[in-house]
Amino acid sequence: MSERSTDEVDMRRTELGQWATRALSAAQPVQLWPLSGDAGFRRYFRASGEPSLIAVDSPPERTNPARFVALSDYLRRYGIHTPLVVAADVSQGFMLLEDLGDRQLLSLLNADTVEGLYGEMLTELLCLQQIPRSEELLPLYSRELLRTEMQILPEWLVEKLLGYTLSADERRLLDRTFDLLLDAAEEQPRVLVHRDYHSRNLMVREGERPGVVDFQDAVWGPVTYDLASLLRDCYIRWPREQVENWALCYASTAESAGILPAVDRETFLRWFDWMGLQRHIKVLGIFPRLYLRDGKQGYLPDLPLVIRYTLEVAGRYPELKPFAEWFGAELLPLAERQSWYRDYRTAGERG
Fold first, then answer.
1. pLDDT digit string, tens, across residues 160-195
2. Cα 240-245-251 angle, rounded to 5 deg
3. What is the third-level CATH fold of 105-346?
4. How many CB atoms are closer than 10 A to CB 61?
């Protein structure tokens, strides 16, 4: 269930509209139409008037609107097309942003378009990763934070969604697996990490650079994180050989750009695979949490694809195989009884 009451939500929307009217010195009251939101606490509305703007309700007690504004400005200074902040009252958590449109990368991807579109998004990623660090705006993606993210899986998927109680041995297995993934993350060069660089947060605009949204949780972390977010997207899947070719081509380009030192193919692919697995373990906990805690039901049908990535990658490495075998033996049968489940072995296939 959402933690904000219906009355509170309605009041915030009314106050946001009144604030937007004042901020724009509009002759008529600004009308707001809800947009489908992301997985966070912000709510988005398209505002009436020309040019089209996006009004954002970003509750200060739950979010950090001041950081959003500062990060947007910082990224724009280096050429990234984040939405221009037209007006903001960070104390109230109200913002008016440039409207980047409705053309998400996801809606345009198919076998014919993917090479060209991913080429654009990887070029943009290269630009992101060349941005210097602001220690004030880009905290370190620390080992502790990466571990905390993975701990969402045992709490929200295992215990709360599937109703499974972990034994002491199973907790030790998870700890060993998490340590392996954390060690691999710490081996990598650090760059700016968007943290959600995927097909629902990249907007395609005719004749312009891609629009980049949902960047407010950016950190300074492992070089393969955003690459894995894009190429092992939780909402669409491509064949393994194709994905690995894209990843290695990016590694070569990043090396030429000075982002990445010379690294052999096997090491880079292990970094890429294990970083993606860390992210997918996190997502396996986040999607159930969004459903159970926040009342957002739309994410559960995407779990089978995340399960597929998890089992495929963990099953390929001897060090991670015990985790894959445990997941397949203990959790998969419980998942198969859930209403959202479909065969993970074909999840993400393009029809």
1. 999 999 999 999 999 999 999 999 999 999 999 999
2. 125
3. Aminoglycoside 3'-phosphotransferase; Chain: A, domain 2 (3.90.1200)
4. 6
